[in-house]
Structure formats: C-alpha cells, structure tokens
C-alpha cells in the first residue's frame, strides 16, 4: 500500500516558512533603510580564509558574528573599529555599502507562497476527483 502525499500539510508548512521569513526580511529591510551607523570593534577573525568567512565583533558589550567577503578579511585586525548599520531593537547588522537584502528575500517569499498555493490547488483537485479517497 503506497502512502499518498499530504498536499495540505505541505501547503501549510510553506505558508508558515514564508511568514517566518517575511519577519526576517522585514528586519533586514528596516536596518537597510532606517538603520543608524554605529561603530563596532572586531574581536575575532577567521583562522582560515575560505569563501564563507565570519568575523566576530562587539557592540554595547554584546558579541555578534557577521559574514564578510573573504577578500576583505586581510584588511582587518582584532581591535579594528568599523562602521555598520544597526537598529537598536534588533540583533542584525549590515555593512554601510551592502545592497538591499530584501530583494532576494522577497523572491524567496514569493516562491514559497507560489508553492503553497500550488499545493492547495493540487489538494483541492485531488479531493474532488472520484476515487481519490
């Protein structure tokens, strides 16, 4: 006996993920558009430079990490002070010259919503077909 896919559960899951992603994208967009320039202090650098490097920095006594392009790591040292965009109520930081991160996020949300709608339509069509029970 083969197990039938649960299209409605997949649709609900895609909608929940899209809603969660939309909050993250909102915080990123607000930081991009309304964030203040703050000065952070570099506290850790990657031991090995790879294509995905993360730096550690401190702001207001709290430590954060952020992705950095591998080519820029060689210009930093521990203790270097750099400017980043930040909103006081969030833990998200952007580099001042960084592109709007919401563009790709909106594409992802649109894709998830489209997939969710497709799953709902497939579920409705399968439910209305005779002998589909």
What does this structure look like?
The protein is α+β, with helices and mostly antiparallel strands and 133 residues long. The protein folds into 2 domains: 1-35 and 97-127; 36-86, OB fold (Dihydrolipoamide Acetyltransferase, E2P) (Beta Barrel). It is 44% helix and 23% strand. The chain has helices spanning 7-34, 70-73, 102-128; strands spanning 36-44, 53-59, 62-68, 81-86, 93-94. The protein has a 5-stranded antiparallel beta sheet with strand order 3-2-1-4-5. Helix 1 runs antiparallel to helix 3 (102-128). It is elongated and about 65 Å long. The relative contact order is 0.22.
Please summarize what this structure is.
Helices cover 44% and strands 23% of the residues. With 133 residues, it is of the alpha+beta class.
| Whole-number tally of structural domains | 2
The biggest beta sheet is recorded as: 5 strands, antiparallel
Using only C-alpha atoms, the radius of gyration works out to 21 Å
How far apart are the first and last residues' alpha carbons, in Å? 13 Å
Number of helices: 3
Strand order of the largest sheet: 3-2-1-4-5
Query: Which structural class is indicated by helix and strand composition?
Result: alpha+beta
Q: Helical amount among residues, as a percent range?
A: 40-55%
Query: Low-confidence parts, pLDDT < 50 over ≥5 residues?
Result: none
Using DSSP, what is the number of strands? 5
* Approximate shape: elongated
Q: Roughly what is the average pLDDT, rounded to an integer?
A: 85
The quaternary organization reads as single chain
**Beta content:** 15-25%
The string of secondary-structure elements, in order, is: HEEEHEEH
């Amino acid at each position: 006996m083969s197990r039938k896919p649960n299209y409605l559960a997949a649709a609900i899951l895609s909608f929940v993920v899209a809603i969660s992603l939309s909050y993250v994208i909102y915080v990123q967009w607000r930081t991009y558009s309304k964030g203040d320039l703050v000065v952070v202090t570099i506290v850790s650098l990657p031991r090995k430079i790879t294509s995905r490097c993360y730096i550690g920095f401190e702001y207001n006594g709290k430590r954060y990490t952020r992705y950095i392009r591998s080519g820029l790591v060689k210009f930093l040292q521990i203790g270097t002070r750099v400017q980043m965009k930040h909103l006081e109520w969030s833990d998200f930081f952007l580099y001042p010259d960084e592109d709007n991160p919401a563009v790709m996020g909106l594409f992802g949300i649109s894709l998830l919503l489209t997939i969710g709608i497709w799953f709902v339509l497939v579920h409705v069509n399968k439910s209305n077909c005779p002998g589909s029970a």
